[in-house]
Every structure is written in structure tokens, then in C-alpha cells.
Amino acid sequence: MDRIPVVEARRTLHVHIMRANPQDPESIPRMQRFELEEADSMTLFIALQEIRQTQDPSLQFDFVCRAGICGSCGMIINGRPALACRTLTRDLPTSITLAPLPAFELIGDLSVNTGSGCEACPNGWRPRASAEAEQVDIDSLEQPMEPELADKIYELERCIECGCCVANCGTARMQG
Ligand code: FES
Predict the structure, then answer these.
(1) d(CA 173, CA 127)
(2) pLDDT of 22
(3) Domain range holding 55?
(4) In this structure, are strands 105-108 and 111-113 parallel, antiparallel, or unpaired?
(5) CATH code at 143?
(6) Ligand 1 center to residue 172 CA distance, Å?
(7) Which H, E and C letters describe 96-156, residue by residue?
(8) Which residues pair with 36 in a beta bridge?
(9) Closest Cα to atom 3, ligand 1: which residue?
(10) Which among 9, 64, 75, 107 is placed 20 to 30 Å from 142, CA to CA?
């Protein structure tokens, strides 16, 4: 006899999002609650898109690649900095709290200017390893790199400048 497939009930997600509009001096930061049905393999990017498309088109958040490459979607997810496009809702409880990354200039809601945090770092620190040349001559030939040097900077070059490490740094937050 054929087995009847077990269909798991879909979860209802309760997403609490910090809303703030620094452009409007009258606006008071607040938490706003949204509800939506979880879909298979749903990421937080998909959840936020759905909320914006079906419930509140004014919700601000940043995404470009949706693949953990561009670093745009860093935010505080249930108290920890993480990339929303790489976070599956099934790995979270049904109650999800989202806030913008601290230590950066707030643009609105979950959107921050991560460039502002890097400029403020001492000694011109940049998260990406780069050549010392002031100006880049795009017509010049690329300089070959010794394998030993390539090995040394490999981890630094993998940085996608999402700002999650800065947001998690107590010193950066005190200086911000
Ligand atoms: S959207 Fe590019 S890293 Fe998440």
C-alpha cells in the first residue's frame, strides 16, 4: 500500500522590523510587526521582498546580488550581524527581529551607509587589501604577484565589505 506523504504545516513568521527615517526629524524610531507565511527555502531577502511588495512599499533595505557577494544586505538578525540573503528563515524561530547595523550612518529602516564606517576608521583603514598607488592607471599592465604574497592576503581579499564585523566590534560602536 502506498504511503500517504506527510505534508508539514507552513509556519507563520512574525517579523519585527525597526523602522526609522533620519531624514524626517518628526519620525520616532519604532518596531513594526509583520506577518507572512514561510515558503520553501525562503531567505530573509525573499521575506523582506514579500513584505515590501504586499504589505509596506515604504520599507527600506539593501540588496544587490542576493548571493553573499556584494555585502549590501548586512543587518542585525535576532541580535547578531549577518547577511540577510544568506539567512534561511527555516534556521530561525518564527519570531524574527531585524535592525540596521550599528556603527554606520542610518539611511532608513534596515539600510545603512557602510562606506561611512570605513572612512571613520583610524589610519585610513580599508577592509579590502589594495595597492598603495594613489591613482589607478587602468591602461597599465597588472603587476604580477608572488604566490607567497597572494597567500598572505587571500583572506583579506575575500572581504565583501558587508560591515558585519565592524557592527560586531565594541570599539567601533563606541567610536560611532
Ligand atoms: S545581497 Fe549581496 S551579499 Fe546579500
Answers:
(1) 16
(2) 93
(3) 12-175
(4) antiparallel
(5) 3.10.20.30
(6) 22
(7) EEEECCCCCEEEECCEEEHHHHHHHCHHHCCCCCCCCCCCCCCCCCCCCCCHHHHHHHHHH
(8) 13
(9) 68
(10) 64
What rounded mean pLDDT belongs to the chain?
86
Selected residue with higher pLDDT from 120 and 96: 96
- Report the length, in residues, of the chain: 176
The answer as to whether 21 is a domain residue is yes
Look at residue 120 in the predicted model and tell me its pLDDT.
Answer: 52
Q: Is 7 among the domain residues? A: no
- Ligand 1 site-directed mutation target among 48, 62, 64, 111, most atoms within 8 Å of CB: 64
Residue 1 placed within a domain? no
Distant-in-sequence contacts of 118-124, Cβ < 8 A, 24+ apart: 118/161, 118/166, 120/175, 120/176, 121/166, 121/172
pTM of the model: 0.80
Spatial separation of the C-alpha atoms in residues 131 and 38, rounded to whole Å? 45
Domain count, the chain: 1
Q: How far apart are CA 82 and CA 165, in angstroms?
A: 9
Helices and strands (H and E) in the chain: how many: 5, 7
For 95, the enclosing helix (H) or strand (E) is: strand 95-99
Q: What is the pLDDT of residues 120-148, one digit of tens each?
A: 555 444 545 555 556 667 787 777 889 99
